[in-house]
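TICKET #2291
ISSUE: user wants both folds in one file
ATTACHMENT 1:
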Amino acid sequence: MQCRLMGRKIQGIVGGIVVVLMTDGMVHADTLTYQAKHSSEVQLMKIPTGKSAVIDVPVPIKRASLANPDIADAIVLTPKQIYVTGKGYGMTNLTLWGKDEQILAIFDVEVGLDVTRLKARLSSLLPDEDGIQVTATNDHVTLTGTVSSTNRMSQATALAEAFAPKKVINFLKVHPEMKEEVPPSVVVEVIKGTSVNHVTPK
């Protein structure tokens, strides 16, 4: 695994993760933070491509393993903190071991499109349509929720298509839903022996 360390001292490599001495404030204030739970259950971490997240571990780790470095990079900042960056679309697995060589935590790291700009665009151009939900799955964008008209649905879809051409899944619904008009029922009284031509609806 090739890494650019910009002059930082490499202390060692464990399980495909570079252990680096960090002293220059690499973690930004807006970085996502996940709390690792001491559990064998898999925890989900979602990171937009090109963005990063920090994992805070309750106890020091001894080693770590990242399954697919093409999807994400992981750097051990300290024995109790890991910095993960999304690189490619998809999902990979990050496993942490404690000092007792027992598995401390397992993460499924899902890296997808950064839809922050799309959400901001929809909010700016369609401010009254606050029922639109935007999610990313790998390199696809999914629209869910409700809009006020079919015209607004088309506008929202067009904005998403500009963001992710031919990769938009549209589950939007018009609310309130347009109902089919049902003609009023006709009650007819038929008198025995009366010709059909002479029957009058009521």
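ATTACHMENT 2:
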Amino acid sequence: MSWFFSAAQRYPDPAGRPAYRWDYAYQDKHVEDAGHGSLDVEGLHQAYLSDRYGITSDMMAPLVNTFTDVMTKGTGHYAGRVDGTDGTGSSAPGKDVRSGWLLLAEFQPASYQLLLSPDLPGGNSGAVDQFAAALLAKSRHNRA
């Protein structure tokens, strides 16, 4: 786990908060796309919850800033890459929030509605992974 945090570039995002930019693979020079970034975040979140890898909430918080301040271009418009740029294929811009990103709401409680509302209109989703992530996010949010 430490390689992720040592390899990810931490920088001030447009809102002045810390964010991360990372590559598709260790020592690769291609910026991670939003879909694979969601999987990265989901794995990091599981490691955080396990309390076995030394991952702290301070290490996780810039990930939510990356999504809310860098990747979110407007409701229903999300950048295709974690640095806020778009490409084609798996780096194309998206219209929904991938499930891994939903899990970050606990690290910035003010982002809870921003992260969950677009994909869960009326509190429902047809995607099992989004619904499961939303339930976990809601549970963690309500404990805070």
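RESOLUTION: both attachments delivered.
EXTRA DETAIL ON ATTACHMENT 2: The longest helix spans residues 34-50.
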